[in-house]
Amino acid sequence: MEFFYSALTDVGRVRANNEDAVRVDAEHGIVVLADGMGGYNAGEVASAMAVDLIVEELGRWLREAAAVATLRDVRRAMEICVDNANRAIFEAANTNDDCAGMGTTLVMGAVLGSTLLVGHVGDSRAYRWRAGVLTLLTRDHSLLQEQIDIGLITPADAAASGYRNLVTRALGVEDTVLLDVQEVGIASGDVLLLCSDGLNDMLHDADIAAVLGSAESPHEMSQHLIELANGRGGRDNVSVIVVKAQEPPRKPGMMAKLLRK
Known about the structure:
- By secondary structure, the protein is of the alpha+beta class.
- It has one domain (2-139, 167-260): Phosphatase 2c, domain 1.
- Helix content is 36%, strand content 27%.
- It contains 8 helices and 10 strands.
- It has helices spanning 42-65, 71-95, 143-149, 155-160, 197-200, 205-212, 218-231, 254-260, and strands at residues 2-10, 20-25, 30-37, 103-112, 115-121, 125-130, 133-136, 180-185, 191-195, 238-246.
- The strands form 2 sheets. It has a 5-stranded antiparallel β-sheet with strand order 1-10-9-6-7.
């Protein structure tokens, strides 16, 4: 399977600074997106620390272990890298006055063969588009999602709520954090999307599906999604990572080569 990547982030139409961060290591199949919080400058410090520390540490591990690594090994490596990043952000927040109270959400993916391991903390999301169907792969760690789960409100109520951004889990807030990880099968033609809530708060699933199902390149899809979110108001920073899976073209067999002569 071949994978084609694009990662873009935009400040949006309202915010003065961008607290989102994205990073891709195409060589090792790693994608990481973080949405920082904690006020001016501090949030962007937390998100940058998260994506840089995780990609660099997980990339080093995969360079050495990918040839023999199992899905369980990669899952454990992801958990360790996120735990290390969490501790680094937590320590910085508690030893530097300028960073007090900072934290960040996180959504990440690591490809092993035809499987994507998706990990997330907070309300940044991962989606998969396949054959016209858009599937949300993550479940928000948020106050609204908890209220939906116990039946206090409906998804429609949540969409109209002014408390959409209250997360119940984030990196850097406590000295430990739990990364939710799941295994997702990948087929040729699948399009994977990681995004900050600045995208899905602005767009309906149908809007996202229409872009991911187009004939555009991953870079064009990323640009299109950000333009749509900004066109709807761009109330927050908007970040996306788009990954498209495709079977490589088959090399012609010996008989086919002979017939061409």
